[in-house]
Design brief:
With 362 residues, the protein is an alpha/beta fold. It has 2 domains: 7-221, Alpha-Beta Complex (Spore Coat Polysaccharide Biosynthesis Protein SpsA, Chain A); 224-361, Alpha Horseshoe (Serine Threonine Protein Phosphatase 5, Tetratricopeptide repeat), CATH 1.25.40. The chain has helices at 17-28, 48-52, 71-81, 101-111, 146-153, 168-174, 185-194, 216-221, 224-244, 248-267, 280-290, 294-314, 318-331, 336-346, 349-361, and strands at 7-13, 35-41, 60-64, 86-89, 95-96, 115-119, 122-126, 129-134, 142-144, 165-167, 198-201, 207-210. Strands 3-2-1-4-10-6-11-9 form an 8-stranded mixed sheet, sandwiched between helices. The protein has a 4-stranded mixed sheet with strand order 5-12-7-8. It is elongated and about 75 Å long.
């Protein structure tokens, strides 16, 4: 029996055959050569099978499913097949920018036995032109403690999906991509793994993340209600995992993040036009899905209703703002910020001017 490779690249591919060559070629160009490439063909209707078999390298394996599994089941199938000590999941539309990136990642994880995964920033590119960097965590290489990095992820996902090299043992021990979180599954995995190990970071953007019309990200943001549902459940589940594993400080950070997330979605939404803003009805439905503690429910609703008050105030509707601030205070009567806003609004023009001055200085 042949010795298993050190690294397995899992390359999910659906209708991306025209980009597959660039991705796989960037992998085959790596200075670290002890790897296998699993092209996970999710019953793609294009020329993916022919392209996947064209590389002439025994390290590249084409795996075609009999039926379409969907992106997360495809990810999990590839991870389950992986023989490597380390697993790199990279979509067929992305690429490695440097021939030494794998060598550097493996060296880091070999040195840092407590690290569950390593990543670097990615360089976005469109039509051959590189644009902006995503996933920047500072100018220098470093290893974050797991707790510190888990706390950072409470602010949102900042680990590019295309640039993570993960110990296979972490998938085996702590689980694979949750099928009921299709829009935020990678964020959940990065935070979950950080509860069980440190996180390696290399500052150079050594991976390219292609931006194009068929990006999965575009389909996510076009369905804001589903996206919001998944993102709040990530925060809830990581908080619960942190509590269960004794990471009390991390759990507290995520507890605050849950409330802040609702307030942010209510007050701002996905973009400056308010697209994706959470309505009162959506808020109630979201809480009903996971929150079964009445005290916690009142605490969250109090902050959320105050955020609704801010929205109405910014629209110039004083009566609407007073109504929501009043609802917030009935649930959380000791909330000082809401008390002040409510009092200033009741003070009329003078209160409005005071609030405008305070806002301009904050």
């Amino acid at each position: 029996m042949t010795r298993p490779p050190r690294v397995t690249f899992v390359v999910p591919c659906y209708n991306l055959g025209h980009l597959l060559t660039e991705c796989v070629t960037s992998i085959l160009a790596q200075s670290f050569v002890d790897f296998e490439v699993l092209v996970l063909d999710d019953c793609s209707p294009d020329a993916t099978p022919e392209i996947a078999r064209s590389f002439g390298d025994p390290r590249v394996h084409h795996v075609r499913h009999a039926t379409n599994l969907g992106h997360m089941r495809n990810y999990n199938a590839g991870i389950a097949m992986a023989r490597g000590e380390y697993v790199w999941l990279i979509s067929a539309d992305d690429r490695l920018r440097r021939p030494y990136v794998l060598e550097r990642f493996v060296a880091l994880l070999d040195r840092q036995s407590d690290a569950g995964y390593a990543f670097c920033p990615v360089m976005r590119f469109r039509d051959g032109t590189e644009t902006t960097v995503y996933g920047d965590h500072g100018d220098g290489d470093r290893v974050f403690t797991g707790d510190a990095f888990a706390r950072a992820l409470a602010r949102g996902n900042s680990v590019p999906a295309a640039s993570g090299l993960v110990r296979k043992s972490f998938y085996d021990s702590f689980g694979m991509f949750p099928l009921d979180l299709p829009f935020a599954c990678d964020w959940y995995m990065w935070a979950l793994f950080a509860l069980h190990g440190d996180v390696g970071y290399l500052a150079e953007p050594m991976v390219g993340w292609r931006v194009h019309a068929n990006n999965m990200t575009h389909s996510f943001t076009s369905r804001p209600t589903a996206l919001m549902r998944d993102e709040i459940l990530v925060l809830v589940r990581v908080r619960d995992q942190a509590r269960a594993t004794g990471h009390t400080e991390v759990a507290s950070v995520y507890d605050d993040a849950i409330v802040s997330y609702y307030a942010w979605r209510i007050a701002s939404g996905v973009g400056p036009d308010g697209f994706g803003r959470m309505t009162p009805e959506q808020l109630e439905a979201s809480l009903a899905e996971w929150c079964h503690d009445e005290r916690e429910r009142k605490r969250i609703l109090g902050r959320a209703y105050a955020a609704f008050g801010d929205v109405w105030y910014d629209k110039g509707d004083a009566n609407g703002a007073l109504r929501w601030y009043g609802s917030a205070l009935r649930l959380a009567p000791a909330d000082a910020r809401t008390l002040v806003k409510y009092g200033l609004l009741r003070a009329g023009r003078v209160g409005h001017r005071v609030r405008a001055v305070v806002a301009s200085r904050s």
